[in-house]
């Protein structure tokens, strides 16, 4: 691989000219034309559905999805790389209008499908041009049967633009404007968050205090955004007569409530081992208990820095141990400048991977500051990119995979790199640092994510009774953290609900448990990889290709021959994490 990799991404190969691109304007017009074609075709289909019309419509929907996806990904990149780009903010509105117009037509389409007689429907699905997409078409048909009458669902879609999605955008706008004074400069929230894993405890504590105050200063605004988001959802659910707030996220993630509850129950039964880890880490720091800002702290003051070039070389090498194709994809992403990693002000916090369905490229966003944790994030996002890289080979309509299986691919990529680093460690100290980095991720998925899940569940229950105040939100958050961490910490982070973007995302609620699912499901896949490296690449690609066309229970049964509604699979996965804790305890004796 070439040296002197760029730390900034190249968006010009998608649309030249950034947020004022003339190419983008033309492409937006093409998207609008396809949406108009969709409208003209779906109207007669809704009146009297015919098989030949359905086949024609599926091709139009592919075109609409491709155009919307290309525009949406580009706009996401623009708003992330520069939160002050006023032209990009305007494009957000255009993107939302395209998505809303499309969603209205998809709603009309799905209701038309629901009116087709069951017997006739089954015969249609045997048609050669539809058989490959039968799962997603049936899913759309079933969803329509579970909603309000069509005209009311269309009204909800119209109202979402300014009565729902706008609150999520308001959150993004507020966060994007936030900066915090640090020494002689103003840092973005993302830059300051990177200091929470600093080796010096005084630096971590000061960074945490400054972040806490920054979020508290805006807390009343975030209370507004969160309450209005939840209120809109709950009103929609009430009209649909959906009693369970988990119905939407479970349907979106194509998983059963039993699978979810079995996963959490198994985790809770195994938390004691992780309490022992937290206590041992506190002991190593000379503390009675860790504070919240100690959770990501390195166990050793002698922390090895890993620059971007080194991280790229390590990731490509370790991906290649399991799949040459994964290594080829990562090399492509690095060499073609698909990654925005520069540490600079003006970027939004966090990291993501987005894909361009027509260009068949991906873009990765993060802030890289030469830590092992940053390298793990980089591997994680490349895992997302590889997932889409494989999916690009199948029908576009089968590429709509849910978040829980998306997190499986990313977490597996992260795990491959983390494990390799542990195995290649040359000293006891280095091995200890790397094992502890792995355990930090287990704690995040089993405790931090669990706290988010508990908070969101209880918040929605409270929101049914009326607006939830800032003070109540803080109380709910701290209670959830104390329960999830087994009261093992000396301080908590009650304003976390404001600082975490995932609570304010409008795509789907409960943007939390899919991470833990993906982590544990990837452990099952990783166990297969380690037992049969020779056949892993083909097995893995086949599994990824099925992620958009079956439920997770079906996926697990087909490829791993396991039942996700039973605790055995989850216990085996958690046991692998407990082994890391045992090694940590031994190394710190």
Automatic annotation (TrEMBL):
<keyword id="KW-0862">Zinc</keyword>
<dbReference type="GO" id="GO:0006508">
    <property type="term" value="P:proteolysis"/>
</dbReference>
<dbReference type="Pfam" id="PF01432">
    <property type="entry name" value="Peptidase_M3"/>
</dbReference>
<feature type="domain" description="Peptidase M3A/M3B catalytic">
    <location>
        <begin position="198"/>
        <end position="575"/>
    </location>
</feature>
<dbReference type="GO" id="GO:0046872">
    <property type="term" value="F:metal ion binding"/>
</dbReference>
<protein>
    <submittedName>
        <fullName>Peptidase M3 family protein</fullName>
    </submittedName>
</protein>
<dbReference type="InterPro" id="IPR001333">
    <property type="entry name" value="Peptidase_M32_Taq"/>
</dbReference>
<dbReference type="InterPro" id="IPR001567">
    <property type="entry name" value="Pept_M3A_M3B_dom"/>
</dbReference>
<feature type="domain" description="Oligopeptidase F N-terminal">
    <location>
        <begin position="114"/>
        <end position="179"/>
    </location>
</feature>
<keyword id="KW-0378">Hydrolase</keyword>
<comment type="similarity">
    <text>Belongs to the peptidase M3 family.</text>
</comment>
<keyword id="KW-0479">Metal-binding</keyword>
<dbReference type="InterPro" id="IPR042088">
    <property type="entry name" value="OligoPept_F_C"/>
</dbReference>
<dbReference type="InterPro" id="IPR034006">
    <property type="entry name" value="M3B_PepF_2"/>
</dbReference>
<keyword id="KW-0645">Protease</keyword>
<dbReference type="InterPro" id="IPR011977">
    <property type="entry name" value="Pept_M3B_clade3"/>
</dbReference>
<keyword id="KW-0482">Metalloprotease</keyword>
<dbReference type="Pfam" id="PF08439">
    <property type="entry name" value="Peptidase_M3_N"/>
</dbReference>
<dbReference type="InterPro" id="IPR013647">
    <property type="entry name" value="OligopepF_N_dom"/>
</dbReference>
<dbReference type="GO" id="GO:0004181">
    <property type="term" value="F:metallocarboxypeptidase activity"/>
</dbReference>
<dbReference type="GO" id="GO:0004222">
    <property type="term" value="F:metalloendopeptidase activity"/>
</dbReference>
